[in-house]
Amino acid sequence: NILMGDLWICGGQSNMELPVSRVMERYRDEINSYVNPLIRMFKVPMAYDFEAPQEELIKGYWQPLTKRNVQDFTATGYFFAKKLFEKYQVPIGLIHTAVGGTPAEAWISEEGLKAMPEYIEQIAKYKNKDYIRQVLDKDEERINQWLQRLDNLDRGMRSKESRWFEVDYEDKDWATIQLPTIWKNEEMYLDAGVVWFRKKVNIPASMIKKQARILLGTIIDSDTVYINGQKIGETGYQYPPRIYDIPQGILKEGENILAIRVVCWRGEGGFTPDKPYQIETADESVDLKGKWLYKVGTGTAIEALAPQIFIQFEPIGVHNGMIAPLKNLVPKGVIWYQGESNASRLPKKYKQLFELLIKDWRRVWQNEKLPFIYVQLPNFKNIGCEYCYSTWAEIRDAQLKTLEVAHTGMAVTIDIGEWNDLHPLNKKDVGERLALIARSLVYNEHIVYSGPLFKEARVLADQVILTFEHIGSGLLAKGGKLEGFTISPDGKRFIPARSSIKDNEVIVWHECIKQPVEVRYAWEDNPENANLYNKENLPASPFKVNLLEV
What we know:
Layout: E1 6-12, H1 14-17, H2 24-32, E2 36-43, E3 62-65, H3 75-88, E4 92-98, H4 117-123, H5 129-153, H6 155-158, E5 175-179, E6 193-203, E7 212-216, E8 219-220, E9 222-227, E10 230-235, E11 243-246, E12 254-264, E13 270-271, E14 277-280, E15 285-287, E16 290-296, H7 317-323, E17 333-337, H8 340-343, H9 350-364, E18 372-375, H10 391-401, E19 408-411, H11 427-441, E20 453-460, E21 463-469, E22 475-477, E23 485-488, E24 495-496, E25 498-502, E26 505-509, E27 518-521, E28 532-534, E29 543-546
Parallel strand pairs: 1-4, 1-17, 2-4, 17-18, 18-19
Antiparallel strand pairs: 2-3, 5-16, 6-12, 6-16, 7-11, 7-14, 8-13, 9-10, 9-12, 14-15, 20-21, 21-26, 22-28, 23-24, 23-27, 25-26, 27-29
Helix pairs in contact: 3-11, 9-10
């Protein structure tokens, strides 16, 4: 049962790791109707080593794309492979080697990081396995002690006679709050602890005998959900969508008591806005947004929990454990989705790191022309604040400039992220844009595979004329007038610019600025109105240009 086909390395952090099961709500019919044993995935188990590159994987096996196995496939890789197979009818093998939260330096070898010795110094202590064990044991003990104190302090669970999720519990002295909301916006803000929420929900008779489930968006940080005193489900960290099946017999006609125990580890707890909150069957739903009762279970007696230590985030570790053992493969190319973790570290170093990573992986597979196709970070976080420093914009700029490396391609995703979710669900467009690049870069099709990429600028009086590569059949302001540009008289203060398209060039100006110094496009964590595309419906990459250097 051996196939001859194309092997693709799927690398990065959580957005590459994100499984199909997390996006089923969005693509259920499409995914359930597609089975293809000629697409297979090998998931490399998470492993790290700081002493030496490993020769063998600790375990692993190939999974064909079946209705049962598809849930574990990388969602980005799934849509990428599906698109390529539909085009070429060549078997596709995905080597899934991604780990949530990992920065780029974790995926580079010790040899590859010699150009940045600060990272080599950082990992010297992790070459001692006894030290690693002591660090992890101490950290586990710290977290367990915190959770135990949390449980001991939680008045909502302290007395079996009056636990706060019970149907007959008296909640008359509880305060009210409008959900969903993030607690820092509310009077009940606390650094850490347990907050309980209760709500009376009327369920119609028509829903009682049907299969039902409850949707609660996402919750920061962990939750336990009860309906009519019965535990329905729980999730231990903030990112997964809360979707819990409700067993038959739990719901009743008329009034039902919904209770949620939320644990906030540090700083910012709450229910994520702009997510679904409802009890639903196949054809009916009851909205859960609006007024709730709440009460703090732990008071202010517990301090914030410091983040867990993840040794796999340290430089060279997962490279030695998860990349080095793959050296005897002959990959067709790499698809890569990563950068979020480096945005919170030293984003200005990302270009150097990323270029070292590409060079290092090409050394591993002994192919200086190994195609490396990657995802530019999408839009994320609150809209606005063009005056703020944006670490995500810095990472995107580093990714854009990495196209200077030969045999690379970048999928722009500035239009398909979600402001309130680090893991946006639209992985279909991500995978298909990666596949589009592969069709040109790897399979040598003459197609438009990229949105507009900034090429050069020239200044005419008080106007800036911008030209682009990859304009396809023409530039387009999608949805109306062209927006998303800012302009500066000094490189420090930026104001929204006027802009227009003429002869497939973009003209940018502002009547208050006679000698512009810098122009930026979509230079925010989440640029609201960036709408420059080509007519093939591919978005332009964010960029900035210092006009003094033109």
